[in-house]
């Protein structure tokens, strides 16, 4: 039996969350300030989203643009406060000055999350050695997803990498689900689905009016319909 196809949508607030769920999203990535490519939302925003929808929401742990951790103590406080408000899923990912995973910060945060599931986000697209990063993170508790375009420049450039990594599913370091996002378009889906990829992440594609406009339920529904139409072509795993 094929694994159900996951559609994750970026939400900035409860209005976005409701539109995403209405359009058929399975999960939210909850962030603030997309001018900085997505920072941690406030606890209040998380609480409002949780009251508005019943699909899971992964909360971003990131306090500044870029992929350096910055103030680790502040990140821990955000994680602690959001968990106390009921958050059970998160998104994070930090690199050190050499472009390698910042293990001291990641391990500290993961310990605070205490078994919560989390996504390592597109920091993987900025590392010098994706394979080494995956293997170094493989034993961190709760890591179940990599959000990646295959390239820092987006899915157009990263498609060969995505297809190659999909073929390595199950190898050491390749157990976490690969979720495609970053310049993703509907015309990318046939090749990605044929390779067995079954998780997709959209942000701007859910907002035809741009980031100053809310999520559009019809835009999300177009993606949901396209993904559901291709379920039969997926490789079961």
Write up this protein.
The chain is an alpha/beta fold and 237 residues long. The chain has a single domain (6-230), classed as TIM Barrel (Alpha-Beta Barrel). The protein is built from 8 helices and 8 strands. It has an 8-stranded parallel beta sheet with strand order 7-6-5-4-3-2-1-8, covered by helices on one side. β2, α2 and β3 (57-60) form a beta-alpha-beta unit. α1 (14-23) packs parallel to α2, α1 (14-23) packs parallel to α8 (217-229) and α3 (72-84) runs parallel beside α4. It is globular, with a radius of gyration of 17 Å. This is Copper homeostasis protein cutC homolog. Belongs to the CutC family. InterPro entries: CutC-like, CutC-like_dom_sf.
Summary of the model, kept short:
This protein is α/β, with parallel strands linked by helices and 237 residues long.
CATH architecture: Alpha-Beta Barrel
CATH topology: TIM Barrel
CATH superfamily: Copper homeostasis (CutC) domain
Number of domains: 1
What does the overall shape look like?
Answer: globular
Family: Belongs to the CutC family.
Protein name: Copper homeostasis protein cutC homolog
Organism: Streptomyces neyagawaensis
Pfam families: CutC (PF03932)
